[in-house]
Amino acid sequence: MDGVVAIGGGRLPTGFFSTPMGASVRAPYRGTRAELMEVLDLARAGAVHVEVEKYTLDEVPEAYRRLHEGAVRGRAVVVPGD
Fold it and tell me: Is the pLDDT of residue 6 over 60?
């Protein structure tokens, strides 16, 4: 069964001198559960870095404002407060 694995932003410069010979770049919208497991294995191995901005429930309006402005780096995640 397919499902949404992640939708991330970012930039990758491509061109004759910036992309290794024979390399290909894809930006898929979704992946399979098996592909998600592969990504998690890469993360456990330290090959993937995920950026997260944490917000408490009281900070959700600020998180939405920053999301709207495109100012959130990585994911905005709501966590329990102290």
Answer: no
